[in-house]
């Protein structure tokens, strides 16, 4: 349809999204011809490693049933075909749905989380918010470490006083 833009998901599959939705979400699709030579080279390397939207399963492994069993474990449920809601993961890869991100985590035994809504990379506002959250988490970690060190030190002093009083 004229109002939709189809993006390649892998060499065999395309995902079509409405131009209105892309525009409304502020996402920009950059044609490969507009990429700088460095970005184009990096994109080509990424394509060999894994698909931008979905996990790629090595086609060479299809002949080996043992390897195939490792990839599709009974615990990893495949995702239904639904309208994509693009999400950028903390691994800086775009996923077409939360289910696909969870599926990726299950297959690869990783813990990728949603970094922001939309295509990767995340916009500066999202990155700024995440940076603030990370700094707050680091402050809390430092505070807890200081607290634990104080409690341990007090416990040692208390134990030393008890030992000295017994002597």
Give an overview of the whole structure:
The protein has 167 residues and is of the alpha+beta class. It folds into 2 domains: 4-122, Wheat Germ Agglutinin (Isolectin 2), domain 1, CATH 3.30.60.30; 123-167. It has helices spanning 19-25, 37-49, 65-71, 98-108, 124-166, and strands at 4-10, 13-18, 87-89, 94-95, 114-117. The protein has a 3-stranded antiparallel beta sheet with strand order 4-3-5. It has a two-stranded antiparallel sheet with strand order 1-2. The chain is elongated and about 90 Å long. The termini are far apart. One of its GO terms (molecular function) is collagen binding. It comes from Rhodnius prolixus. Residues 70-121 form the Kazal-like domain. Keywords: Disulfide bond, Glycoprotein, Signal. Residues 31-71 are annotated as: Disordered.
What is the compact description of this entry?
This protein is of the alpha+beta class and 167 residues long. It has helices at residues 19-25, 37-49, 65-71, 98-108, 124-166, and strands at 4-10, 13-18, 87-89, 94-95, 114-117. It folds into 2 domains: 4-122, Wheat Germ Agglutinin (Isolectin 2), domain 1; 123-167.
């Amino acid at each position: 349809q004229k109002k939709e833009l189809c993006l390649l998901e892998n060499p065999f599959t395309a995902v079509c999204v409405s131009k209105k939705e892309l525009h409304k979400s502020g996402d920009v699709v950059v044609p490969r011809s507009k990429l700088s030579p460095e970005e184009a080279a990096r994109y080509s390397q990424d394509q060999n490693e894994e698909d931008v939207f979905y996990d790629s399963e090595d086609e060479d492994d299809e002949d080996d049933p043992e390897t195939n069993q490792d990839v599709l474990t009974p615990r990893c449920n495949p995702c239904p075909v639904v309208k994509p809601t693009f999400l950028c993961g903390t691994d800086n890869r775009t996923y077409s749905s939360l289910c696909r991100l969870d599926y990726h985590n299950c297959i690869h035994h990783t813990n990728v989380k949603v970094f922001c809504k939309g295509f990767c990379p995340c916009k500066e506002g999202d990155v700024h918010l995440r940076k603030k959250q990370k700094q707050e988490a680091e402050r809390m970690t430092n505070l807890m470490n200081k607290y634990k060190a104080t409690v341990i030190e007090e416990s040692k002093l208390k134990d030393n006083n008890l030992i000295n009083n017994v002597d």
